[in-house]
User: Fold these one by one.
Assistant:
Number 1:
Amino acid sequence: MKQKTLLFGALGMLVVLILFMVKDLFLSSPEPGNNPWKYDLETMKQADTMKPAYTMVKAIPSGLQGLVAIATGPGDRIYTTGAGGAEIYDSACRLLLRFDFEDTAYALTVDSTGNLWMSMGDHVEVWNKTGKKLQTLKSAGRGSLITSLALTGSSLLIADAGLKVVYHYDHMGNMINRIGEKDPVRKVPGFVIPGPWFDLAVSPDGSLWIANPGRHELEQYRFDGQRLLSWGKPGIGIPEFCGCCNPSHFTFLPDGSFVTSEKGIERIKVYNPRGKFSAVVALPGDFDEGTRGLDLATDSRGRILVVDPVRKQIRIFVKRSTTSNN
Amino acid sequence: MPNRREFLTTLFRAAFLTGLGVLGGAMVLRKGKPGECGFGFDCAHCGEADKCVIPHPFESRQMVWQLDPSLCTHCGQCATACVMTPSAVKCVHVYAMCGYCDLCGGYFKPGTKTLDTAAENQLCPTNAIKRKFVEEPFFEYTIDESLCIGCGKCVKGCDAFGNGSLQLQVRHDRCKNCNQCAIARICPSGAYRKVPARHPSLLRGFEQKPKNGDFTQSQENR
Ligand code: SF4
Ligand code: SF4
Ligand code: SF4
């Protein structure tokens, strides 16, 4: 009898031991606990307390796989591109056309006839507003990644993040000159492009501005490559540009003010035409964590259109006082 | 009684078979570093080891633990849960992706005013990242693995503000290759898996032309 009790006792203990091991090995839930080395991005983002002067009035869900670029065209039509296709919306955000292509378009600009000029990585293609390819310009070369395009009456400006240079082409794709290569004689410091973020835009008064994200600056150039002006400071304060490569995108409002977007601390801001900070459009709380690639466009009414690649939306922001008109 | 000729034939066969067995066993169990044949010949490092018809050396056919940086959420447990002290997980710098930035999000504490190497400006709790001037305006960042505890703080900073070139990896010169990796068991992101010892890292690479327009980094098995 005593032996039996001992045997059952030992067996019971063994079962308890096995159960304990099973729980420890397979059932214990991950306990992230307190991370003493936490990089507190949230607190940093919440420090941006300035009230945005803009509010979002619309979020258009896009049917594209990966949203990358946005532009506005004649009649304030909205054009977006990304992985495998493009979409055209009217100014009231109704989808007019979606067409497909094989590649991913990394940059977009629209000419006065509504044709789409798109970067397909290392070269530019021109498609008309019915989704027919019209022209393929020759490749910019091995290692090229074209991330921004702008058109003027006779020029096509191309920002190449891969080769870290801006090309000045004519509309037929013939190179006129290169802009922004390091040249101590002309006092051109060269572009510092740590990642695939390299934007340019032509202001309403026709001047060429190029982002130098590694230096946290926007630089003005003449079309012949002469560097004229620059502004911008690194830092995490709202008037500054955060991280190692910002602003990632920028564009102009009709009055010549700059609209910029940043990654890291996701925020969109407006600076006056002389580069003085003037307003907040959106702060990190408006985006999902880790959102990057906030390409920007504006329309004739001063609305700011933002590509949100994480939410797969085109988000439209307007100045608070003008909300009722939109 | 077997005659002498039969005895010698049997002996020869036995010796031949034993030799074959030893050779086969050596082929299967031979040791060798990943990427090498393991026969102890002078290796020409032809880079063709993967295409070789001879089975890989025993060690490089083994599986080892590795973490996938694209899944890691920098929870800090790589530093604390490893059976090794300090952890076998270290920060690895993928130089090909690095922007060599002056204002490095992985090196400086956010809001640092002066971009110099003063200890109070550094994000790394053990000052394991070394900053060296290359040429205006570029700086190179190297990891002193003897100081790195694998906390992932710099990795998060680099991910958020930079290119994600700082990445956590299990270093196999330190890892005990535990049967059940203590970190894998509790990793909240399920970032750990077993990989062949001949391809022991799971570093993310930077694609010049990201597919699907996704400008985050693609993963590369190196
Ligand atoms: S435990 Fe997982 S999520 Fe946490 S730091 Fe390690 S790999 Fe990253
Ligand atoms: S911050 Fe952490 S992971 Fe990065 S180098 Fe320092 S100790 Fe290593
Ligand atoms: S296998 Fe063991 S030694 Fe290696 S990382 Fe995991 S817990 Fe650390």
Note: Residues 207-222 of chain B have pLDDT under 50 and may be disordered.
Number 2:
Amino acid sequence: MSLLAGLGAGPAGAAGGAAVVPAPRRPTSRAWLWLLLPGLVYLLLLFVVPVVALLATSLYAPVPGGELGQYAPALRVANYADALAAFWPQLTRSFGFALLATLAALLIGYPMAYVIAVRARGRPLLQGLLLVLVVAPFFTSFILRTIAWRQILADDAFVVQALQLLHLLPEGGRLTATPVAVVSGLTYNFLPFMVLPIYASLERLDPRLVEAGADLYASPATTFRTVTLPLSLPGVVAGTLLVFIPASGDYVNSSLLGNSTNTSMVGQVIDARFFRVLDYPTAASLSVVLMLVILVLVGAYVRRAGTEDLL
Amino acid sequence: MAGAGALELTGVTKRFGPFTAVDALDLVVPSGSFFALLGPSGCGKTTTLRMVAGLEHPTAGTIAIGGSDVTGTRPHRRPVNTVFQSYALFPHLSVAENVGFGLRRTRTPEVERRVREALELVELGHAGDQRPAQLSGGQQQRVALARAVVNRPAVLLLDEPLGALDLKLRRQMQIELRHIQTEVGLTFVHVTHDQEEAMTMADTVAVMNRGRIEQMGPPAELYEHPRTVFVANFLGQSNLAPGVVVEEGGGTLGVDVAGHRVLVPAARAVAARGTVLVGVRPEKVRILVAGQEPGPGENVLGPGRVTDVSFAGVSTQYQVELPGIGTFGVFAQNLLGGATVPLGAPVRLAWAAAHTFALDGRDAAEGTTDLDEAS
Ligand SMILES: Nc1ncnc2c1ncn2[C@@H]1O[C@H](COP(=O)(O)OP(=O)(O)OP(=O)(O)O)[C@@H](O)[C@H]1O
Ligand SMILES: [Mg+2]
């Protein structure tokens, strides 16, 4: 319903705008409606319908005396309280891990993007090569890469052995099944989503502005802080969102690299509730909570970053 | 004079691969002077300024500002500011923040007051809170000017700072710039390809061509005593005719130009023997119609025919075809109204011998191409 209302608001809004600033040629064609149609149908079927179903499921109640996995439509709001009471550690851990992974990806990804966009400027071949290297991990499957990480971080692999040799890891210490492994996996898997938007921002940055900074007595570090960084902020905002959102709902990394009680994330819980315990209402209510929290966090972040006028 | 220069370039060369953009440039800009670097597009003006600002490193040579060598100094440590040809305003900062950028870096007190004054100077006092993108091209250019001037640098580098302004604002800003320069006593290096702007504003003009300085001096001297074909044609226009020196004596050269004897003061001749190019400015030349005779001490060429008459308001510009010599331009003041000589009329040309100059004849081959370019 809200979709139809939105459709109705489109032309009305346009007409209102035209009344304030009279446009010389008012578009009379309705072609844009037809152009929008496939996308709207797609969204309706694959987003709106599932979300409505999810909301409904989150309020289902068990059938009295029914079998495992039997639920009936209801309005059992207590599902949310139960789910939160039981799984709040996993929920907060998810956002904690996602935040750490986002920060790590930013710290690793910004310099990478800077080197490709600024240092390699004017050498398109080198830039192309480096960009291919950034996206190259996508040529193999997400799962396979994460399994490879499990082998790299395994107890008998060289990383653990080297760390033990350097006494950075105690004898018998391990990396797999630790938060470090999960956060590393998240960082690694989502790094390209950080690098590419920052690269795009820096690539667009006019090098003459950096020269103007130097000409106006700003040292390279000051020029970076006052010119380069603010102008690349749209890329940073886009990159952090593209990493944080999927990372907070991820369950592949936590199940393949964590696999113990103190690393499980909410995605893993939803997966287990849904497919193993057949506890659909809890899985659904956790999903809804995850969605809402992300929405609120992202909204607050974008508002704080205040880069709308730069985007 | 060593040490008195606010800016000294010694043997400065810049090569981009095999291409030499600036070739062994020697230059002394006296402190407090208004110096114009004049030259056609691509002659290396911007590259020269960039080397002074430290944004480009010279392939060879040294640069000194205020007597101290800055050749290896980073740009942010040089006491110079640039008004960039492309403005290069910071899009994420307001106009006032742009102008205050340099002051904040040097921790100058009273940033706000200085910024306001600088903006008022360029008549943009009302635009401080706006973003550069909201301003017109000319307004942006003035912001760029304010952003550089406000720092009161030892040397201010201006790379065609008035290029985007309309004629009226351009004249006004020229006067304003001169005013700022004399009032604050800054040294200005002003790059332009507008010869009129260079001549009206500068104390010293350097004419640059292909990475070299062809001639340097006060505007009037450059105009009256051009030493190369390029300068003769780039700074104003010149009528040039090849000839051979046939006699010399008494401070005067006698030159044979296609059978006519033309006198040139020896002091105004770059070469005193062999083949030379005899030159005279078009506004110095008089048209003699049938029955008119030249006065004493005048050089005469012709007869020829008027091939073009064009009215240009204050003057009428004639083209006169002289057989065996070439086409001469004549600017006649419209004292009595419009054109007085009709198209196709048989005429002779006369001018005072004292206004004749002579260039080296070997310059000619190179000069002929530039002749078309300049006209
Ligand atoms: N970074 C560079 N790499 C290669 N060639 C360059 C570079 N910068 C300038 N050049 C060349 O050097 C020459 C001089 O350029 P410059 O920008 O100094 O010209 P200009 O005199 O300022 O011209 P204009 O009046 O058009 O601004 C040009 O032929 C240009 O192609
Ligand atoms: Mg230039």
Note: The interface with chain B takes residues 206, 208-209, 211-220, 222-223, 226-227, 230-231, 310 of chain A (CB under 8 Å).
